[in-house]
Amino acid sequence: MQRVFSGIQPSGIPTLGNYLGAIRNWVPMQDESECLFCVVDLHAITQRQDPKELLSNTREMAATLLACGLDLNKCTLFVQSHVPAHAQLGWVFNCIARMGWLNRMTQFKDKAGKNREEVSTGLFVYPNLMAADILVYHANVVPVGDDQKQHLELANDIAQKFNHDYGVDFFPNIQPMIQGVAARVMSLRDGTKKMSKSDPSDQSRINLTDDADLIADKIKRAKTDPDVLPDNLAALEGRPEARNLVGILAAVTGTTPEAVLAEHAGKGFGAFKPVLTEALVSHLTPIRAEMQRLLTDPGALDAELRRGAEKADAIAEPILKKTYEIVGFLARR
Ligand code: TYM
């Protein structure tokens, strides 16, 4: 059976982008594969996090994942810092990956901006830890949004170089799984930028915690253009904001952008936006309610996460031990 791994950073409140690009696709995989899903707090601190907020965001993220349909009887859900093997294998990979490879990472360039001297070294080696997250379970399928593709290619380079350098066939090849019309949901303020939980503007995204009024307000103010919707996708070329809203409606209603255009061609955004708002509110309201219910009992949630970490640990530990043996570390016992 294939083993699936994916992670999400508790660096803010989960957005519609996280949901449509990743979380929603994780849910059906639980029925077909052995699945591990992880709230990656070690990754979150590569950029400054307020400790209290990190703690509450970690619980909130776990509650969101459950509210979106992860089922603890079918998958393993845990917090990255609870399983030390991630950081331990991450160190080994720091010694495998090459500076040149990391220098090419577009996400590092975007996040570091012009101020390279000031960003944490953790941000630079972030993809090595991400490779460790996956490979410490010998996971071979990784469902993610489009923005993670380059990191997964690097993870494969690391696995191959490790195997080659040590003359082993130990780490498997990873298959990225990038699905659907919403693999890249864009900002509501700028259709050329990814919707992100760390964007300073709350108006740029729909958070899964937003209530109906807030969703309506954000969609109403979302950037658009004065033209009507065309009857075919090619005609949306050069209209990134319009393309994005059409894609969101298609993803939320389980149809295609082509079908959305067939239904709404000739309408302006004044008519289209209320339809989109309605679809988002009816889709997200039950998720928000379930998330709030789960957060009323943080003790129970923490206990589930501890159980998840134990299950994850039991898979990761022998793989880490074998890695150490391959590298030539003296066995502890
Ligand atoms: P993160 O926390 O930024 O995002 C979590 C998941 O959501 C997807 N995503 C999006 N998809 C579509 N449109 C968007 N606007 C959008 N924004 C985010 C991401 O592609 C991701 O799948 N590095 C990862 C976390 C990670 C990880 C891993 C993932 C750490 N280790 C191992 C897979 C495997 C990240 O920052 O995701």
UniProtKB/TrEMBL annotation:
UniProt key word Zinc: no
Q: Which is a GO BP term held by this UniProt record? A: tryptophanyl-tRNA aminoacylation
Top-level taxon of origin: Bacteria
Per the UniProt record, one Pfam family is: tRNA-synt_1b
Locations listed in the record: Cytoplasm
According to the UniProt entry, what is the EC number of this protein? Answer: 6.1.1.2
By its UniProt entry, which CDD domains does this protein fall under? Answer: TrpRS_core
InterPro entries registered for this protein in UniProt: aa-tRNA-synth_I_CS, aa-tRNA-synth_Ic, Rossmann-like_a/b/a_fold, Trp-tRNA-ligase, Trp-tRNA-ligase_bac-type, Trp-tRNA_synthetase
Reaction(s) catalysed (UniProt annotation): tRNA(Trp) + L-tryptophan + ATP = L-tryptophyl-tRNA(Trp) + AMP + diphosphate + H(+)
Classification via NCBIfam families: trpS
Q: What does this protein do?
A: Catalyzes the attachment of tryptophan to tRNA(Trp).
- Name the protein family: Belongs to the class-I aminoacyl-tRNA synthetase family.
Question: Subunit composition?
Answer: Homodimer.
Task: Give the protein's recorded name.
Answer: Tryptophan--tRNA ligase
